[in-house]
Each structure stands twice: as C-alpha cells, then as structure tokens.
Design goal:
This is Phage shock protein B. Keywords: Membrane, Transmembrane, Transmembrane helix. The chain has helices at about 5-65, 65-85. The chain is mainly α. The protein has one domain (about 20-85).
C-alpha cells in the first residue's frame, strides 16, 4: 500500500465511521429535545383540561347537593310512582 491508498484506507476505516457516529448522535439528541418540548406542551394541555374538569365537577357537586335539587328529585320520583300505580287497572 502506497501513500494515497493508505490514506484512503485510514479515511474509510477510522474517520468516516467517527463522522457518521457523530452525525447520528447529534440527530438523536435533537430528536430527544423535540420530544421533550412536545411532551411539555402536551403536559400543559392536559393540566389545563384537568383544571377545567375539576371546576365543572365542583359545580355539579354543588348542584347535586343543593337541597332544592334533592327535593325536586324526590318529588319527581314520587310523581312517577303515583303515575305508575294509577296506570295499573284495578280489579
């Protein structure tokens, strides 16, 4: 092996793989950073939605535990019971 051939062999055996590995590693790092940013955005969105759902749940709990709502539900239940007993023909 003479001068130029030796340089090409060294280039292909040592330098080129190092360059390729460096390029692949930097690409993977960039992809990981993008995934992290995307994950943070999704986390923020989920947190916002969870806060909205909690506030809706508090409103629904207040409605259900309201005395007027319970009284109205009991009256509706009694009306249905009375209506169902009146629709049964008596013998």
């Amino acid at each position: 092996m003479d001068g130029p051939e030796f340089v090409l062999v060294i280039l292909f055996l040592f330098v080129l793989p190092i360059v390729i590995i460096g390029t692949v590693a930097s690409h993977r790092k960039a992809m990981a950073e993008l995934q992290l940013k995307l994950g943070n955005a999704e986390t923020a969105q989920v947190t916002t939605e969870l806060t909205a759902i909690k506030s809706r749940l508090e409103v629904l709990e207040a409605i259900v535990t309201d005395k007027k709502y319970q009284l109205s539900a009991e009256i509706d239940s009694l009306n249905k019971t009375v209506a169902s007993t009146q629709s049964i023909p008596r013998q």
